[in-house]
Amino acid sequence: MLSAWLHDEAGICEKASNATTASFKQPQTVEHPIVEAALKEWVEQAQQKGIAINENILKIKARQFADMQGIPKEKFLLLSNGWVQGVKGWLGLRGVQLQGEAASADVEKADEEELRLRKISNQKGDKTRMSYMLTTNADGSERLKPLVISHSKQPCCFQHKTPQSLGFDYHFNKKAWMTGVIFQLYITALDCQMQQQNQKILLLVDNHKWDPATVTNVQVKFLAPNMTAHIQPMDAGIIQNFKANYKQAHCEQALDQEMAGVLDIYCIEQKEAMGLAWIAWEEVTVETIANC
């Protein structure tokens, strides 16, 4: 479908320049008219299908159209937030919303973050919540498998397999959040790992009050909520990068669903979302971690 739109260059240009088009205002300057006209056409079709469109979707779709036109990334600089806001106004999308190197490598940092399966689309439906505990060393050279907490002991999408057999460090409780019991299990497992490696570490944890039982190779330090970003490195950009990676992957999957004719393009199973989140964590760069 992408290639069909872009091969119909004359037709798309005619639609883009048609002053009688009711719901759209043409931007004052158009650097890549074929790309922007194709984007306009796609948005019209998506709106007819009732598909919610967010800023990430617009950026990814524009990039796809630019790739089809053979426009190099360095020459297609329309993906800034300013451009997105302008295109949203042009396309009538007023309601669209989205959602330093001073530390030793033996200092680990951990924080808890939450993902909701339907958060990107702002649609009603599945309210599954997952809380993540992310842990990495200070220079980004070693990061632990994400700890995941959700509601169900055995989600249907696991298909009777254990979380461990699927490769996840998974826990559950009614509210899908960290508890003292889960935290103790996490610290005990981490301590065993450090004993096997004959290594002792300092673990910085963001704003929790649990007092773990005595362990030999992990010293836990809880940080106050008003600490600076240098002391709370996970809040300084690491979590933001993780969430951005997840949103990007989810939006790319949603567009694949749209191309396949699926109406509820944002629908995603818990196991699939956990897989995307794991990839999102792995894609946080070493430089991002080391400089936070």
TrEMBL record:
Keywords: DNA-binding
An MF annotation (GO) of this entry: DNA binding
DNA-binding as UniProt keyword: yes
GO CC field: nucleus
InterPro entries: CenT-Element_Derived (IPR050863), DDE_SF_endonuclease_dom (IPR004875), Homeodomain-like_sf (IPR009057), HTH_CenpB_DNA-bd_dom (IPR006600)
PROSITE patterns: HTH_CENPB
Positions of the HTH CENPB-type domain: 23-97
PANTHER family: PROTEIN PDC2 (PTHR19303:SF73), TRANSPOSON (PTHR19303)
Record's protein name: DDE-domain-containing protein
Organism of this sequence: Dacryopinax primogenitus (strain DJM 731)
